């Protein structure tokens, strides 16, 4: 079944990483994959554009089914292979509610991180404002504190939505790992650091760890002062 799947992905991209973790958790190793370079603009190549007119990664196809949005692809895999591998969406209504809540809150964290990390890359120099930088940093700081607070209220060794690894972790862990890659301090965000250390040892995460992070463990320091 996995051989009928193809994933185009980029190293270090949290959305790509989500899909790869989900594939590992559902025991779908052996899928076709193509690692592409953002720097070389390979995400705009013909094979990608053929299934994803946005020219973005991930781009994912299973047989004739195309689903490129990472949240959609992960939910698709869980629904298509419910009885295989890890159950990522729990049956209990209370547990399911918290999983969905944390899953979709990840999008807010992702956006606020992007507003800080990519500001100088996305905004032309003559359009940048110190007030915008300050506002973006304050918004991200509050968001990170919110997530730190979530884990403070949970038992030691908990995952994002409780005692079990779920789709909430598939979604949020790559974003948390990305924050630490860009300099977030585990001494200041103790619970997020503990969560990061817990999940990074999981086989699905180790198997899909961004290759260029392995080659160069030293990240950037954009978030070091948070």
UniProtKB/TrEMBL annotation:
Domain GST N-terminal span(s) in chain numbering: 3-85
Matching Pfam families: GST_C_3 (PF14497), GST_N_3 (PF13417)
Boundaries of every GST C-terminal domain copy: 92-220
InterPro entries for the chain: Glutathione-S-Trfase_C-like, Glutathione-S-Trfase_C_sf, Glutathione_S-Trfase, Glutathione_S-Trfase_N, GST_C, Thioredoxin-like_sf
Domain of life: Eukaryota
SUPFAM superfamilies noted in UniProt: GST C-terminal domain-like, Thioredoxin-like
Alphabetical list of Gene3D superfamilies matching this protein: 1.20.1050.10, Glutaredoxin
Chain ranges passing through the membrane: none
PANTHER family to which the protein is assigned, alphabetical: MALEYLACETOACETATE ISOMERASE
This protein's name: Glutathione S-transferase A-like
Species whose genome carries this gene: Huso huso
């Amino acid at each position: 079944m996995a051989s009928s799947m193809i994933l185009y992905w980029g190293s270090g991209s949290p959305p790509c990483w989500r899909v790869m973790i989900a594939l590992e958790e559902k025991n779908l190793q052996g899928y076709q994959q193509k690692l592409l370079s953002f720097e070389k603009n390979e995400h705009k190549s013909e094979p990608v554009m053929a299934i994803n007119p946005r020219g973005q990664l991930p781009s994912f196809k299973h047989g004739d089914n195309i689903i490129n949005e990472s949240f959609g692809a992960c939910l698709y895999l869980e629904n298509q292979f419910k009885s295989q591998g890890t159950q990522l969406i729990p049956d209990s209504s209370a547990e399911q509610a918290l999983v969905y809540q944390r899953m979709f809150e990840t999008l807010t964290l992702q956006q606020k991180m992007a507003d800080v990390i990519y500001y100088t890359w996305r905004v032309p120099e003559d359009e940048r404002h110190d007030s915008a930088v300050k506002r973006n940093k304050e918004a991200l700081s509050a968001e990170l504190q919110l997530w730190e607070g979530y884990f403070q209220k949970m038992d030691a060794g908990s995952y994002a939505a409780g005692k079990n690894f779920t789709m909430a972790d598939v979604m949020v862990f790559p974003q948390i790992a990305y924050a630490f890659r860009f300099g977030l301090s585990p001494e200041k965000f103790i619970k997020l650091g503990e969560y990061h250390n817990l999940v990074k040892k999981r086989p699905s995460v180790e198997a899909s760890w961004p290759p260029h992070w392995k080659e160069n463990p030293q990240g950037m320091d954009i978030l070091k002062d948070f």
